[in-house]
């Protein structure tokens, strides 16, 4: 009898299995922190208390995919609550002088809860007397024990080295935290918070039906990019951290050169790289109920028009049925429209599929990329 704990099940690799697990892991994380009445007070009270200490803002220290989740959190928290957020590379924060702001709350984010430079950042913050909170995927990890508040995800064990389900679980925890902050600061009414939580709880059912289409669509698209060795990933606003995460996944899994940039920065230098051998991956989703999302979308369309005139090869992640984007893109990955705040979780998944299939095309053991470990335990 096959031991399913030692096998990726119906899929060829753990990475593909873990991509498909995301609707259920998102649901599990939601169930830990939210019920039919809203936030679960028994588990959310320590998080609220930690937020109350952030009189001069929040510092987030993290590395790799976890830092990209932190960059998304910066926008979520600032836009919803007005609390100032600064995101640091953990490897840099742990080496900085201790003479910074005194009354910030410090958050560390780590899948394993054991990452060496992030753990060093947590210990430095604890020694400086900061209120600390750790988001990890391991509730018994060192960071979870040593932080003043532990705020674990419910992604379950992640076996593939490239982070997939742990990343989206982190994004979800940070979404919940941003809503707690907005509630605490009175930036959103109780009914507004309730409406946003309702959208969050609908997310697993929104994602599940899309996975089969996304897997097949992205598999076919990846075939068209076999010869491309360089990629620039572009996104605006909260989509920029997802673009950066997509680029990191492609580096880790497929050994291809990829960089993430805010879309508006392309013409400030990186455009010199765009050529037959360097493709653009542009996030161009839109929530048509959100004026800021519409503005970002129109700017993305304008940039796409300019890049097509320049002859660029453009792969886009965009809303299903968006004919304006389809007319400009070389290839298009479709996701179903949702609220702006939820798009990052929806966009991350096709970019994970893209990294996976590009790696498979290159004959790479995607679960165990060269030179990488699941947790960086030595600085």
Task: Tell me what the structure shows.
The chain has helices at 14-20, 22-33, 41-52, 64-81, 90-93, 116-127, 142-146, 165-185, 190-201, 203-207, 210-224, 239-254, 291-310, 323-328, 343-361; strands at residues 34-35, 38-39, 58-62, 85-89, 105-110, 131-136, 149-150, 230-235, 257-262, 278-283, 314-319, 331-335. The chain contains 15 helices and twelve strands. The chain folds into two domains: 4-203, Rossmann fold, CATH 3.40.50.10490; 209-361, Glucose-6-phosphate isomerase like protein, domain 1 (Rossmann fold, 3-Layer(aba) Sandwich). α2 (22-33) packs parallel to α8 (165-185) and α3 packs across α8. Helix content is 49%, strand content 15%. The chain is an alpha/beta fold and 379 residues long. The strands form three sheets. The chain has a five-stranded parallel beta sheet with strand order 4-3-5-6-7, sandwiched between helices. α7 (142-146) links the parallel β6 (131-136) and β7.
Helical content stands at 40-55%
Determine the strand fraction and express it as a percent band. 15-25%
Largest sheet: 5 strands, parallel
DSSP summary, beta strand count: 12
Strand order of the largest sheet: 4-3-5-6-7
CATH top-level class of the largest domain: Alpha Beta
Q: Any idea what the CATH superfamily of the largest domain is called?
A: Glucose-6-phosphate isomerase like protein, domain 1
Query: Low-confidence parts, pLDDT < 50 over ≥5 residues?
Result: none
- Tally of DSSP helical segments: 15
Task: Write down the secondary-structure element order.
Answer: HHEEHEHEHEHEHEHHHHEHEEHEHEH
The secondary structure category is: alpha/beta
Dominant shape? globular
Tally of structural domains: 2
Radius of gyration over C-alpha positions, nearest whole angstrom: 20 Å
CATH fold label of the largest domain: Rossmann fold
Question: What is the annotated CATH architecture of the largest domain?
Answer: 3-Layer(aba) Sandwich
Average predicted confidence as pLDDT: 94
